[in-house]
Amino acid sequence: MTKRIQFTAHGGPEVLQYVDYQPAEPGPQEVRVRNRAIGLNFIDTYYRTGVYKPPGLPSGAGSEGAGEVEALGSAVTGLKVGDRVAYATGPLGAYSELYVLPADKLIKLPDSISFEQAAAVMLKGLTVQYLLRQTYAVQAGETILWHAAAGGVGLLACQWAKALGVQLIGTVSSAEKAALASANGAWATIDYSHEDVRARVRELTGGKKCPVVYDSVGKDTWEISLDCLKPRGLLVSFGNASGPVTGVDLSILAQKGSLYVTRPGLFTYASSQARLQAMADELFGLLASGQLKVEIGQRYALADAAAAQSALESRQTTGSTILLP
Ligand SMILES: NC(=O)c1ccc[n+]([C@@H]2O[C@H](COP(=O)([O-])OP(=O)(O)OC[C@H]3O[C@@H](n4cnc5c(N)ncnc54)[C@H](OP(=O)(O)O)[C@@H]3O)[C@@H](O)[C@H]2O)c1
């Protein structure tokens, strides 16, 4: 018998239980992976609280990790037992020693990337890839605003933006987080716990403001983000760390400068194996060249997933957090 984390009701971190678990044999198109490291992501908390609905209860948690192929379905090609793999778009259940998922969600890992690095960077790095390169293709010389810049996604965005020659203004909630974002390549930081973000963005951009704002904080920053955009700028609202944005009167977009808003998700951008692989290739290329480094701020035992989620939700973490089975 192996172990996994599951929840049978929505609620706080205490609903996460560490239980005995025996996964089903892989179906024809599936693979069983022995996880060596698992990624912790804010989205995991949305499923736990019920902000996002899991397919059913009890539910597994998590969708990112890295490990070795242990068993293959009869129709799987291109993979063999013992292959080192990673994934970021699997079905809920990655918080587990053993994890069965569709083979086309797996990416083979280069030897240069450890299991821990992969678990820390796959979901967050692929997210930064599509946000900076696809949702809005940032150009060298542009100045952009990125909220929660010292988080897991945020620190990768700071580095990736710098590699592209983009000036990233990062918001953070403490001086320590500001220093970390700067060390990772943020061009400027704003402590939104006490600074006026609108005024600082105007000042930093010489009054021009930004062509794009990346906002994963949600409810608390929605209007601030709109006010930091140039006319016809794009707000990329990609998360709800402070709660979801609801009840929007669309005329606000006209009033604030004929703005655009998109609410993207990784699963759409990585919807085919070819797209997923292309995004991963770009991510691995930046890791190999040293332009991107993985900042693992916290490691927890898989059994302590509740403590890990509690730290993430209470803004105590920086960079990526991984769970070790
Ligand atoms: N749409 C997608 O495809 C996609 C994919 C991946 C992640 N995301 C989103 O990206 C965001 C970052 O994910 P992550 O896993 O890397 O998490 P994270 O950034 O490491 O943690 C969230 C950060 O949000 C900030 N925050 C602001 N208000 C908060 C509040 N009321 N409660 C908690 N945190 C608050 C905190 O930083 P400060 O203390 O500096 O404010 C906190 O550290 C999340 O919103 C996630 O849902 C979206």
Please give a structural write-up:
The chain is of the alpha/beta class and 325 residues long. It has two domains: 2-121 and 294-324, Quinone Oxidoreductase, Chain A, domain 1; 140-263, Rossmann fold (3-Layer(aba) Sandwich), CATH 3.40.50. Helix content is 30%, strand content 26%. The strands form three sheets. Strands 3, 5, 6, 7, 8, 15 and 16 form a seven-stranded mixed beta sheet that branches. Helix 2 packs across helix 3 (152-163) and helix 2 crosses helix 9 (273-289). The radius of gyration is 20 Å and the shape is globular. The structure holds NADP nicotinamide-adenine-dinucleotide phosphate (NAP). The site of NADP nicotinamide-adenine-dinucleotide phosphate has 30 residues, from helix 1, helix 2, helix 3 and helix 10.
Number of domains: 2
Molecular shape: globular
CATH classification class of the largest domain: Alpha Beta
Radius of gyration: 20 Å
State which percent range the strand residues make up.
25-35%
Small molecules held by this entry: NADP nicotinamide-adenine-dinucleotide phosphate
Order of helices and strands: EEEHEEEEEHEHEHEHEHEHEHHEHE
The largest β sheet comes out as: 7 strands, mixed
* pLDDT averaged over residues: 98
In CATH terms, what is the architecture of the largest domain? Alpha-Beta Complex
Could you give the distance between the termini?
Answer: 14 Å
Low-confidence stretches: none
Number of helices: 10
CATH fold annotation of the largest domain: Quinone Oxidoreductase, Chain A, domain 1
User: What would you call the structural class?
Assistant: alpha/beta
Helix content: 25-40%
